[in-house]
Amino acid sequence: MNEESFVDKREVDWKRLTTLCDSAEAGLTRLTAGDLREFIRLYRRVSTDLALARTKSTNDPLITYLNDLVGRAYGVLYRSPRKPFLATLLATIALSTQTVRRNRWFLFTSASIFFGSAFLIFFLMSWVPAVKDTVIPPGMEKNFDGWKKGEFQEKSGSESGAMTGFYASNNPRTAIITGAVGAGSFGVASVFFLFQNGAILGALAHEVAPVGKLPFLLSSISPHGVPELSGIIVAGSAGLLLGYALINPGRRRRSDALKAVGKDAIVLLATSVVLMFIAAPIEAFFSFQPQIPQWLKVVVAVISVIAWAALWTGFGRNPEIEGARAVAE
């Protein structure tokens, strides 16, 4: 084959197909009906050129060039159409709710550890006062004293915005750590973080109860607490899932067991982070604002519980698929 003549004769089509690929990759709507017909015709002709070059040429750069061009054109022709933003968002939420329901036993275990430690420390501090020095982290006594006063300082919009940024950076990091450490500790570290966070809540409740501020505490944290505590519990369930895969890999290698549950663990962790982000502005602009009545905070929390419960139990439900997965498990 005369390569020089071959290139001179066919290069125009190659350049034209490249131009069409550039336009199509920026959006198929950029191509007219005539462009699409030309695109298909050129794709077939360049595919033939590639086959010819592979069989009758030793020019590796030419073969690589044509192979890349045909690959680009193939990707344009056969790629999945882009979904509208709303459809993508709904599909993502459905994936999250389905994953949570599929791992409900890890979720219940995570919730039991968190709330169990809160109740345990609440009563244990009454029976063994010395526990207080162990449970309450150094530097948090001042925060506890503030809750005993039962009042908040009014914050400006800029201050609340700054606090939103703090909550949105600190709380998701806590959730990620709680879940991710499960893979390296057989779930033990996730249990520890769940217990520790629940214990702090229980200790705080114990400290404010004697001065009659327990209702104030619960009503104040309830609006943002619904998504925030849900986030830490969902993160903990990811850690427990990873830990269980290591403890009970079945006939698989532990690395394979981790890969098998990896997708669910990532979805759970991502869900926990989103919940933390949702809680951040509620905590900064609503929960701790003194001008908002405590009864209204309770009402918002109750509505939030009902709405989230409906979402987790009903959204994206497909009885046939979920039933098949349940049988497989």
Structure overview:
There is one protein chain. With 329 residues, this protein is mostly helical. The protein folds into two domains: 3-78; 86-328, no CATH class. It has 14 helices and no strands. The protein has helices at residues 3-26, 33-56, 60-78, 85-102, 104-127, 131-135, 141-149, 157-180, 182-185, 188-208, 214-247, 254-287, 294-314, 319-328. The model has no long low-confidence stretch (mean pLDDT 89).
Provide key terms for this protein.
mainly alpha, elongated, 329 residues
Q: Give the % helix.
A: over 70%
Written as H for each helix and E for each strand, in order along the chain, the element string is HHHHHHHHHHHHHH
Question: Kindly, what is the distance between the CA atoms of the first and last residues, rounded to a whole number of angstroms?
Answer: 60 Å
Give the class from helix and strand content and strand pairing.
mainly alpha
Number of separate strands: 0
Question: How is the secondary structure organized here?
Answer:
Elements (H helix, E strand, L loop, with lengths): L2 H24 L6 H24 L3 H19 L6 H18 L1 H24 L3 H5 L5 H9 L7 H24 L1 H4 L2 H21 L5 H34 L6 H34 L6 H21 L4 H10 L1
